[in-house]
Design a protein that fits this description.
Blueprint: E1 3-7, H1 12-23, E2 27-32, E3 38-39, H2 47-53, E4 58-61, H3 70-83, E5 88-94, H4 103-116, E6 122-127, H5 131-141, E7 146-150, E8 154-155, H6 160-171, E9 177-178, E10 188-189, H7 190-201, E11 206-210, H8 215-221, H9 237-245
Parallel strand pairs: 1-2, 1-4, 2-3, 4-5, 5-6, 6-9, 7-11
Antiparallel strand pairs: 8-10
Helix pairs in contact: 1-6, 3-4, 7-9
């Protein structure tokens, strides 16, 4: 069976990718700052990275941080993957990184280009935002009686498990370059999504749409982060919050 290394393998996505691959009988190494065997800070690099990649056939690069460092981490990973003669590098990116001038998106796009120019055989999958990201957003915004939302913005959330399934499939397939995007099943306004969250959590909040400014907001408002033509996910946001919060009690 193939030996596969998953960066960010202790994270929400990486952990699921690891589980899928191991269930199919592959040897999987988990690399992250918190991993037991391959505890490596990709931004810092170091000899531990070479040891983790020794004998690896495929790398699934899930490690990422909105706080920065992705490009340095990718440079270190690519250099080590070349030294180890890794045969396939699979990368998870985000729909809209080339259309929305948002700082984190720009970094993800830069990593895409680094991988494309690395000389390694590669596959890149872009996905829309995970359900959990919206839940985290709404949890923060609903702490006050009035819940502010960016005006005119929609989203197309997708189940992280479905993205993990696709990445696991790509990891054991031939390098394919940029593959079709993976979008959630529905494009809905943030107001509609927020209402679904409030209903599932038993909360009552007034919703206030607030116009924002800047090129990034304009990009989101224009739908640059959406892939309606690739609405191939099955689990809706309503399904997700109903399952996650369905047992929650009285209205708050």
């Amino acid at each position: 069976m193939t030996t596969i290394l998953v960066t960010g393998g202790t994270g929400v996505l990486g952990r699921l990718v690891t589980e899928r691959l191991r269930a199919d009988g592959h040897e999987v190494r988990v690399l992250s700052r918190h991993a037991q065997q391959y505890s490596v800070d990709l931004v810092a690099g170091g000899s531990g990275l070479d040891a983790a990649l020794a004998g690896v056939d495929t790398v699934v690069h899930c490690a990422s941080s909105p706080r920065g460092g992705d490009e340095k981490a990718a440079a270190n990973l690519i250099a080590a993957a070349r030294r180890a003669a890794v045969g396939h590098l699979v990368y998870i990116s985000i729909v809209g990184v080339d259309r929305v001038p948002f700082g984190y998106y720009r970094s993800k796009l830069a990593v895409e280009r680094m991988i494309e120019e690395s000389g390694l055989a590669w596959t890149t999958l872009r996905a829309t935002q995970f359900h959990d990201l919206l839940v985290t957003l709404f949890e923060g915004l609903s702490k006050s009686p009035v819940m502010p939302l960016p005006a005119g913005v929609s989203d197309q959330p997708v189940a992280v498990a479905e993205v993990a399934d696709r990445l696991a499939e790509l990891a054991v397939s031939a390098p394919a370059g940029r593959v079709p995007d993976l979008g959630g099943p529905e494009v809905l306004s943030l107001r509609t999504l927020a209402r679904a969250y409030l209903t599932a959590t038993g909360r009552r909040r007034a919703l206030l749409t607030v116009p924002l400014f800047g090129r990034a907001y304009a990009g989101f408002r224009a739908g640059g982060h959406l892939a309606p033509e690739r609405a191939v996910g099955r689990v809706t946001f309503g399904d997700h919050v109903a399952e996650r919060f369905g047992g929650r009690g009285k209205t708050r």
